[in-house]
Write a structure and sequence with these properties.
Elements lengths: L1 H23 L1 E4 L1 E6 L4 E6 L6 E3 L12 H6 E3 L1 E2 L3 E4 L4 E5 L5 E5 L2 E2 L1 E3 L14 E2 L2 E5 L27
Parallel strand pairs: 1-7
Antiparallel strand pairs: 2-3, 4-13, 5-11, 6-9, 8-9, 9-10, 12-13
Length: 163
């Protein structure tokens, strides 16, 4: 009798756990468009307003920012497995080599920049990473890369080398 009760309790816990996991998966708003007054363009930002960037040349399967040193400066936009990102057209996901899921825009992985402390800042735009360049994700306008603001004070980051 005690074994049956234990089995029922274990089954109920497993069912509730599965339902909770299913509730966590699904659609999740992770980005939105916002008019950026500095660039005079509509750009992609997180739901908290932080500017999103992509690294030129980085597409699914060809990832340049893949080390903890790079992630300390350029923070990938992660989501939970089984989640579909929403908030803008052309969003997708890729599975990183470590198994985490990163949001993409038109196939390019999305990142925030550690030195953008407030919504609307674009301090990472134009930063060099070897032969590649970090660019704000522009969603409207001419389709050309956003203008590069003059670099601010600071040491930069490893001359484009990511450890």
């Amino acid at each position: 009798m005690d074994v049956r009760r234990a089995a029922v309790v274990i089954g109920a816990v497993a069912l509730l756990g599965g339902l909770a996991a299913g509730a966590a998966a699904g659609n999740q708003a992770v980005v939105k468009s916002a008019k950026n007054r500095i660039l005079n363009e509509t750009i992609l930002v997180t739901t908290k307003g932080k500017t999103l960037y992509r690294l030129s040349g980085e597409k699914q399967g060809a990832l340049s920012c893949a080390t903890p040193a790079c992630f300390a400066i350029w923070r990938p936009l992660w989501i939970a497995p089984g989640t579909t990102p929403t908030g803008a057209k052309n969003l997708g996901t890729l599975t990183r080599p470590d198994g985490r899921i990163q949001v993409t825009y038109k196939g390019g992985p999305l990142y925030t920049y550690v030195r953008d402390k407030n919504a609307g800042q674009v301090n990472g735009n134009g930063q060099k990473a070897g032969v590649a360049t970090w660019q704000v994700v522009v969603t409207t306008g001419t389709g050309s890369p956003a203008p590069v603001p003059k670099p601010g004070p600071g040491p930069g980051y490893g001359n484009g080398r990511y450890g």
